[in-house]
Design brief:
Layout: E1 9-10, E2 16-20, E3 23-28, E4 31-36, E5 42-46, E6 49-53, H1 59-80, E7 83-90, E8 95-99, E9 102-106, E10 113-116, E11 122-126, E12 130-135, H2 138-151, E13 161-164
Antiparallel strand pairs: 1-6, 2-3, 3-4, 5-6, 7-12, 7-13, 8-9, 9-10, 11-12
Length: 179
């Protein structure tokens, strides 16, 4: 039996979960999330806990069992506390500005690059060079952070670009003069 999959996910106070067919809905103080559960697995809510069950010990079912339980735990954590990713912008003249529907970044192109926030995602900008992305959906927060980073990934020669907080960029030596 999957050690991860067999552990029930406890629902903290203020968080409710409901199963309708193959859809699990979790509602809490930070918002509401829903996810379609694989048709082979069953999810039940009882005694303030969410339990995921699998039909057999096939390797495919074992993998789905642990994955589904982790996804449910992430949903509960997201509607309770939320998730946050932080991006840093490095480079002369590089900055970010909040706009009415997202964020606009100035990262060395001839034009500013607007990014529209998906539903449920909020941006906080500190000192024009730090972007904090937060929301209840872990998957969506990570996706938005990745898409923003792809606008101008850090380059290896000077390190300019958008990077995750704490990310180390491996630097390369530049050209050496040939004589």
């Amino acid at each position: 039996m999957s050690r991860i999959g067999k552990k029930p996910v406890a629902l903290p106070s203020g968080v409710s979960a409901a199963v309708e067919g193959n859809t699990l809905r979790v509602k809490g103080p930070k918002g509401e999330l829903s996810r379609l559960v694989h048709r082979d697995l069953s999810v039940r809510v009882e005694n303030g806990q969410v339990q995921v069950d699998r039909p057999s010990d096939e390797p495919r079912h074992k993998a789905l069992h642990g994955l589904t339980r982790t996804l449910v735990a992430n949903m509960v954590e997201g509607v309770t506390n939320g998730y946050q990713r932080t991006l840093e912008i490095q480079g002369v003249g590089y900055k970010a500005e909040a706009s009415k529907d997202g964020v606009t970044v100035h990262v060395g192109f001839s034009h500013p690059v607007p990014y529209r926030a998906p539903k449920g995602i909020t941006f906080a900008i500190e000192a024009n060079t730090v972007i904090k992305i937060s929301g209840p959906d872990k998957e969506l927060v990570g996706q938005v952070a990745s898409e923003l980073r792809q606008i101008r990934p850090p380059e290896p020669y000077k390190g300019k670009g958008i990077r995750y907080q704490g990310e180390r960029v491996r630097r390369k030596a530049g050209k050496t003069g040939a004589k």
